[in-house]
Amino acid sequence: MGMAAVLSRAACFIGIIILGYGLRRIGFFKEEDFHVLSKIVLKITLPAAIVFSFADKEINPSMLIISLLGLSGGLVYIAAGFLMNVRASRERKAFEILNMSGYNIGNFTLPFVQSFLGPSGVVVTSLFDTGNAVVCLGGAYSAASMVKGESKGVPVVQIVKTLAKSVPFDTYLIMTILCLLGIRLPAQAVSFAGIIADGNAFMAMLMIGVGFKLSGDRSQTGTIIRILAVRYGIAAVLSAVFYFLLPMPLEYRQTLAILVFAPIASAAPAFTADLKGDIGLSSAVNSISILISICCIVGVVGVIL
């Protein structure tokens, strides 16, 4: 894929995000509509995209290492958030652990991979996100809660319950097991999922636009810069390691090199609210990470494809 095609496709995604943001600004969408769009993406179009992408794919058990890479990436950020705040207050340490960890794969990065790398890339992305989900859907929150002193241990049962309620995670898990066992879904079911999956990229980008907001205090600019600088500095290192050093097929390494530049997990602001943290700062970090990720992913795609 030439650079012109990459930029053209990325411009379309950015245009849909701007459309969603603009429609919210003029009152076509209300702020609470974000939650409706989020449910459509997380419980309908994203699972359909996963089902369609896994159809007729064979997964070697050795590929499960990709899930461990997704888990490990999240743990690296949790460790970084802790180490860079060793002497800071418990509140700040908990905030940065939570708002530096996890990848926004399903809502953001998967549509890019789906467009640029096709079904094989989506399978790798899904395996990676299965491991990532453990961090962004409970692991990072548990670590932040312990650091802040509101939890005395890792609530494993609660993490498992949270994951079990996640439709994308359940879909990842079921489709991975079916592929490992060599079980194929009926052609009619795959065709039905494919029709819905075609709308995933549009719905995901529209949802991001509707939910986009910058509400952080300008006096907190230094905190935002520090968190994002560490986040994307680590991402650059991981991207290079995955692409140049992993003994995997090229399309797998290309996908992983893109995935590590995914924005911060979209659940971070909600978990920040649960810990009574600074929601405005969390939303600002999360939204700015989306802008940075768009630039990084487009740049990486242009280089490796």
- Separation, N- and C-terminal Cα atoms: 6 Å
Reported for the largest beta sheet, the result is: none
List the uncertain runs: none
How much strand? under 5%
What is the helix fraction of residues, given as a range?
over 70%
User: Over all CA atoms, what is the radius of gyration?
Assistant: 19 Å
The beta-strand count equals 0
Helix and strand composition category: mainly alpha
Shape: globular
Mean pLDDT comes to: 85
Q: So how many helices?
A: 14
What order do the SSEs take from the amino end to the carboxyl end, as H and E? HHHHHHHHHHHHHH
Please describe the topology of this protein:
Blueprint: H1 3-25, H2 33-54, H3 65-83, H4 90-98, H5 105-116, H6 118-148, H7 156-164, H8 167-181, H9 187-197, H10 200-211, H11 221-245, H12 250-259, H13 268-274, H14 279-304
Helix pairs in contact: 1-10, 1-14, 2-6, 2-8, 2-9, 2-10, 3-4, 3-6, 3-11, 4-6, 5-6, 5-10, 6-7, 6-8, 6-12, 11-12, 12-14, 13-14
Short description:
This protein is mainly alpha-helical. It is 76% helix and 0% strand. The protein starts with a helix and ends with a helix.
Task: Please describe what this structure looks like.
- The chain is mostly helical and about 300 residues long.
- It has 14 helices and no strands.
- It has helices at about 5-25, 35-55, 65-85, 90-100, 105-115, 120-150, 155-165, 165-180, 185-195, 200-210, 220-245, 250-260, 270-275, 280-305.
- Helix 1 (about 5-25) runs antiparallel to helix 14, helix 5 (about 105-115) runs antiparallel to helix 6 and helix 12 (about 250-260) runs antiparallel to helix 14.
